[in-house]
What does this fold into?
Amino acid sequence: MIAFTFLRHLMKLALKILFAFVMLITAYSRCNAAETSYMDPLLNQAKVQSSGRLTFWGLPIYDATLYRSALPNASEFALEIRYQRSISGDALASRTAEEMIKTGVSEKQADLWGKELAKIFPNVEPGTMLTAVYVPKQGTTFLLNQKPLAQVPGEDFSKAFFGVWFSDKTSSPKLRKALLGQNCLTPLFNEPCTP
It folds into this structure.
């Protein structure tokens, strides 16, 4: 009789744990869907592909997340940056232009795009989220904390901008590898998929 009572209590406890686990999984799924839903008008059925962190001398600068469309063979994608440090918009634009040059963009063109980005990029604080969404034939759309910020048309700009993270000439190869893994961002980058 004691063994039966113990077994019954053990079964009730197991059911409670299972129920709590199912509720946790459901809450996580809803949270993940809510996080990506702001991109759905631009990036059909967005889903997280990967993420990574950029550090400088061990200090976190930002967390990056790569989103892809859940549709098969879709070319659009988004890169979300969550800043861990305060940085001026001018410094972000200048650094982006410098990184474009390192990936092969001419100094003159990178300077022009850097000036354009200086008009777009705000000053960021820890927790600020900038998202860049690439859609073929539309270019790059920027979002600030999930709200539309600006759009820059043109494949050349998109390739140069996203090349800062995804070109094989990036100055952050560890972050590139974390974000891309064995995947490619075609047709924007017609490079081998080796990390």
The chain has one domain: 38-180. The mean pLDDT is 80. The longest strand covers residues 46-56.
